[in-house]
């Protein structure tokens, strides 16, 4: 359904504007009755004649309404499905680009951290890598412990069996 209000106008003006013009009255006297005027083209006087010229203006105010119903609803459904598929495709493309960006950020921040290069903490750009964690960088052994059993000296006493913790 479509409803459209409208307002239109028109003004017609004729320039130069003349209410009257002077119409000549010619001498048609034929005194000798030979069917030829005695003084052809002689103007006896002028008569003011109305031109009928006037300006005009119009204004139209109205409302236009149209209503249409598709005869083939299958085509309309296909159009809706195509639009939804296109929107989903665009959303997936945006998600892929976001994932590419986040992976590139993670990689670059990690490589810089390995090299010992970071932004000064608390600065605006330090936030860029703030959520990146560097776990087990090459050449660095993480803190860990091992429990190793120690065999007792040739004794049958079980209380001598001890576990020693060795840590780095």
How are the SSEs ordered, and which strands pair?
Layout: E1 2-12, E2 20-26, E3 43-50, E4 56-66, H1 73-114, E5 145-150, E6 162-167
Antiparallel strand pairs: 1-4, 2-3, 5-6
Give a quick summary of the entry.
The protein is an alpha+beta fold and 168 residues long. It has 1 helix and 6 strands; from the N terminus they run ββββαββ. The strands form 3 sheets. It has a two-stranded antiparallel ribbon with strand order 1-4.
How would you describe the overall organization of this protein?
This protein has 168 residues and is an alpha+beta fold. It folds into 2 domains: 2-66, no CATH class; 74-140. The chain is built from 1 helix and 6 strands; from the N terminus they run ββββαββ. The chain has one helix at 73-114; strands spanning 2-12, 20-26, 43-50, 56-66, 145-150, 162-167. The strands form 3 sheets. It has a two-stranded antiparallel sheet with strand order 1-4. The chain has a two-stranded antiparallel ribbon with strand order 2-3. The radius of gyration is 52 Å and the shape is rod-shaped.
């Amino acid at each position: 359904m479509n409803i459209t209000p409208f307002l239109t106008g028109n003004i017609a003006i004729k320039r130069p504007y003349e209410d009257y013009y002077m119409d000549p009255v010619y001498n048609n006297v034929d005194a000798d009755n030979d069917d030829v005027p005695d003084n052809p083209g002689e103007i006896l006087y002028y008569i003011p004649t109305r031109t009928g010229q006037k300006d005009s203006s119009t204004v139209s105010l109205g409302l236009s309404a149209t209503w249409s119903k598709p005869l083939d609803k299958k085509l309309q459904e296909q159009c809706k499905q195509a639009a939804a598929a296109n929107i989903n495709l665009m959303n997936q493309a945006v998600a892929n680009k976001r994932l590419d960006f986040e992976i590139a950020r993670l990689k670059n921040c990690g490589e810089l951290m390995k090299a010992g290069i970071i932004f000064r903490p608390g600065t605006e750009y330090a936030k860029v890598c703030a959520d990146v964690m560097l776990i087990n960088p090459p050449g660095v052994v993480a803190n860990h412990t091992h429990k190793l059993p120690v065999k007792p000296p040739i004794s049958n006493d079980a209380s001598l069996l001890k576990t020693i913790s060795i840590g780095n």
